[in-house]
Amino acid sequence: MRPFLDLDPAGVALDHTRRLWREHEQYAAPGRVRLDEFTARTLTDDNTVWSARVRGDRVHESLVLFAQQVGSYFAGSRLAGDLVPFLDVDVPGREAVVWRSGGVWVELWAPTGTGDGETAAGAALAVSTGVPSGRLPFRRRPKSPAA
Fold it and tell me: Which of 22, 92, 96, 115 could staple 109 via S-S, CB 3.0–4.6 A?
């Protein structure tokens, strides 16, 4: 049996990502989204990047929700250089949830405009139409003059 400290960080990061995504799929997005197979590549600084495309309905909403939900999972167990999941829209035509754990980068990505047609920029720049919210169905009554 190998000692605990000899665990491969890339394998651990991949296993954690798969488990977290299964939980997300099961509870937050049942039947709406799925991950393609993960691919691995090595950066110029010898760090590993695991990458998988997200497909399905309402992909943007699912990525945002995933980043929000799993952020607390990483908050207590961070090492130097680790990053909690965040939504990355730096690459044109693509949005991704990206994080770094144990020196390994992980990205779950989707092309913008997939699923429900919502893009990250469109969601962030939602404009108010000026339509009443319906919260207060009646206008305030004018105050009567003091008699």
Answer: 96
